[in-house]
Amino acid sequence: MMLKSGYGWTRIHTDGIDRRTVLNAALLPLVGKTIRAQAPKGLRIWDVHCHMYRVPGDTPEQRIEFLVRLADRMGIERLILSQGYSANLHPTADQLREENDRVLRAVRRFPERVYGSVYLSPSHLEASLEEFDRCVRDGPMIGIGELEIDKRCNAAELDPIVERAVAMKAPILQHCWLKTDGNEPEESSPNDLVELARRHPDATFICAHTGGNWERGIRMIRDTKNICAEIAGSDPTSGFVEMAVRELGAERVVYGSDVGGRSFASQLSKVLGADIPDTAKALVLGGNLRRLYGPILRSKGRAPERD
């Protein structure tokens, strides 16, 4: 199928196409200039939560080229990418490796713009530890996640993964949700992440989506200082970022889009439209991520202050 976007005609896959795919491909490029014009000058925006599924392109290189063009329009400096094309909540060990290979290809295409985060599953622990070593210890990736719902993240199988992350100073992005009609089997809540984080006080965790029901999620993680709240995944409702900054402090709130599933623009609007100081916006939109990922970047010969 051919779709006309802000860049002209683009080929997109029609398998499982839905309205969100169409909006991401066609409408998002048109609003970039407006969003960027609202941003305080001098911001260095990093996005902690990016995927290549629902993105046009036949190869990882084509898909990441599309995302980087959109990021340019949004004024986003760095993308942290994970999971490849997958929306599979129960990947096999071979699928983990395949999706990590796709992310590695995307990182190689834009090494100055795109970082990788390794996709793992506690249901395949030995394979996951091997993937961590291949992609993070011996490769260019700088974090773990987004970990999904194979097992709730308070499971004991997460402990060896977290220990490996602590050794490399790699932050962990953990999917957490609070569904009105109940989570999926083995889907983590912010309370599950709190339990894991308290077992590993030296680890750095990022609570992806902050539960979706962010008013509850923020309160759940408030007293666990090694968990940051990430803003991606819910509708661009006002108040999310304000509450997170008020309850946690601006140093514990980070920007992510969940692009592929959501748009850069809708998630940026939560921060750019928030009633918080520009200094807090600068932390949420990139300053905190440069601090959190700084140790592992420096160990790989990268300086986030200049990167």
Name its key features:
TIM Barrel; 307 residues; globular; two-stranded antiparallel sheet; 16% strand; 10 strands; alpha/beta; disordered N terminus
Query: In one word, what is the shape?
Result: globular
Task: Give the mean pLDDT.
Answer: 89
The neighbouring-strand order within the major sheet is: 3-4-5-6-7-8-9-10
Report the CATH C-level class: Alpha Beta
Whole-number count of domains: 1
How many separate helices? 11
Strand count, sense and barrel status of the largest sheet are:
8 strands, parallel
Q: Which fold does the CATH topology refer to?
A: TIM Barrel
Structural commentary:
The N and C termini lie far apart (38 Å). This protein has helices at 19-26, 32-38, 60-74, 93-109, 125-137, 158-168, 190-199, 214-221, 240-248, 264-272, 278-299; strands at 2-5, 8-11, 45-50, 76-81, 114-118, 143-147, 172-177, 205-211, 227-230, 253-254. It has 307 residues and is an alpha/beta fold. Strand 4, helix 4 (93-109) and strand 5 form a beta-alpha-beta unit. The strands form two sheets. Strands 3-4-5-6-7-8-9-10 form an eight-stranded parallel beta sheet. A two-stranded antiparallel ribbon has the order 1-2. It has one domain: Metal-dependent hydrolases (TIM Barrel), CATH 3.20.20.140. It is globular, with a radius of gyration of 18 Å.
Task: Offer a concise description of the structure.
It is built from eleven helices and ten strands. It has one domain (37-299): TIM Barrel (Alpha-Beta Barrel), CATH 3.20.20.140. It has helices at 19-26, 32-38, 60-74, 93-109, 125-137, 158-168, 190-199, 214-221, 240-248, 264-272, 278-299; strands spanning 2-5, 8-11, 45-50, 76-81, 114-118, 143-147, 172-177, 205-211, 227-230, 253-254.
